[in-house]
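Lab notebook, bench 4. Still working through the backlog of constructs that have no structural model yet. Next entry is a single chain of 202 residues. Request: give me the structure tokens for it.
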Amino acid sequence: MITSTQTTSFTGPGRPRDPNVNQAILAATLRQLSKDGYGRMSMDSVAAEAGVTKPTVYRRWASKADLATAALAELQVEEAAPSSGDAPTDLRAVLTTLQRSLCRPNGIAIIGTVMVEEHHTPELITLFRQRVVRPRRAMLRNVLEEAEKRGDLRNDADIDTAVSMLIGSFYAHYLTGEKIPRGWPRRIVQTVWEGIAKSPQA
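Model written out:
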């Protein structure tokens, strides 16, 4: 177990704490949020799983809500927006990254946790929307808006609906109980693109 005196080589006030300890605690928090949910997660259980003492956790985060929101912040979307100039290619790139994030151990289970806690701990889903949902939607919207500027979309193309269909298809498929197919980004992009793209004859 890592004790509180082992978290950093600097012990003076205001000195930076060991980032490896921070990451161990945040990773344990994400695992517990996805496995047990926010209600059953505790500072004690996170400390035990991370291999640190409870005071080590409390020195960094004053409450369970603070710790949970800090862990969710680690899920922030930071990948660069694709810009190949070909909308279907760029849409597939964004959705391929989305699929990787959803299929990791903490993926969709985390979404269920923050939704369950929406009325009791609303800051969780608020942060998740800010750090994860909105950035990815913005990437897809940007790809489609650029396609619109190039004249690649039909005049009546509904970009907001297309974005929701592209992302929502992953959650809908997950609820069937079947594994999301490897080629799903290609399939859903092809289907949605055919509905909004200007025909070659137009």
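Notes after review: The longest helix spans residues 122-149. Residues 1-15 have pLDDT under 50 and may be disordered. Flag for follow-up if needed.
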